[in-house]
Sequence to fold (167 residues):
Amino acid sequence: MSNLVYLMCSLPSLSFGQVPPITMEEFTRDAKNQLSAKHFKKLEPVDIYQATDSKGKVGLKSIGVMLKEMQNDISEIRMAKAQKRTPGLQRLPQAIINANPLEREKLIMKWQWEELDTIQAGEVFTLTEVMVYKLRLQILNRLNSFDKEQGAKVLASVVNPPKKKEV
Fold:
């Protein structure tokens, strides 16, 4: 337990929308140095983009449920759009339905951040708190990876792919 306390006290605080104050590599290194091998093994596969690890195990059931229901809602939005109907969402806020793709992504990340508040409630100096920290760091990294110029280049390459030169 003392290692969990030390780790959490040594990590910088995180706020939604900020530039990540620590890299994922620094976090992983610190966690590996401070946590027991058993705890680090549980932390390692935790990922905001997939509910289970390679063996199909969920790091924390509530996180797995959140991610699964989020994926179901995203699928529902896509199906409803194709069928020209209003989607029926389970968990995601209705505001994401009419948002453009970038704003939708940001709204989903904000929703995830708030859901993690609920998962972490009452968890002080526990492995759950460390897992939530890792997930939030992943959210901040994703949020700060958006680049308008790079996005425009990717869009242009999809819409107007370069023509192959004839040999």
In short: The mean pLDDT is 85.
